[in-house]
Every structure is written in C-alpha cells, then in structure tokens.
Amino acid sequence: MLQLCTIYACANGTLGLNLSRAPWDPYPWVSGVQAKSSAERGGVRLGDTLLELNGADVLGLRISELANRLQDHWQSGAGVVTLMMWRQQASIDPNEDPAEASHAVVSSRHLCSILLA
C-alpha cells in the first residue's frame, strides 16, 4: 500500500531514520526508525520502501544523492519533507525480529552511516 509521510523539521535537523540500498535494489528501504523522532511521528515504519522524496522519483538514486537533495531542501528554508512510501504490510508486529522486519519490503543535513539527518 502507498503511504504519504509528512515529516516536519526538527530543532536538531534530524529526521530519525536510516535508509539502506544495495546496488541491485531499485529503491532504498527504511532499515531503522528512531523512537519519538520526526520520522516516526510522520508515519515512517521499518521496512518501508522510499519511492519519492518531495514528489520526485528516487529510482536508482544513491543514498548520498538523496542526502544531498534533502540537504538542499532544508537549506531552501523548507519546514517539511514528504516521503511517498510503499508499505508491503499494514504494520509490522512489534514482537518481530527487527532485522527480519527490515527485509519485509525488498525490492538532513548530514548522512553518516546511512543516517538521514
């Protein structure tokens, strides 16, 4: 199912999510969401696949390219970012192993260890 997530800028500039993407993955997927983060409040869930960043398709983009686009977006003075996600499951069971759940969907100012800030 498609899920539009709106994430508001946080005082420290972080979104609170990790993205992962292998060279053969057409789209990145969410491999981590920090508790009580802007991403969590915006509806981002572990295992979501990122399809669009602010309405632009992210097909084939590297994580570093996404970070640069996000940095440019924040520097423009924007207060929100929108993420169009594909969610295979309506929700992920909280008792499920997070490492296994992060593979449920296969296919900002700083990016370090694939942490979008």
Automatic annotation (TrEMBL):
Gene3D superfamilies: 2.30.42.10. Residues 4-72 form the PDZ domain. SUPFAM superfamilies: PDZ domain-like (SSF50156). CDD domains: PDZ_canonical. It holds the Pfam family PDZ_6. It comes from the Eukaryota. This is GD18416. The gene is Dsim\GD18416.
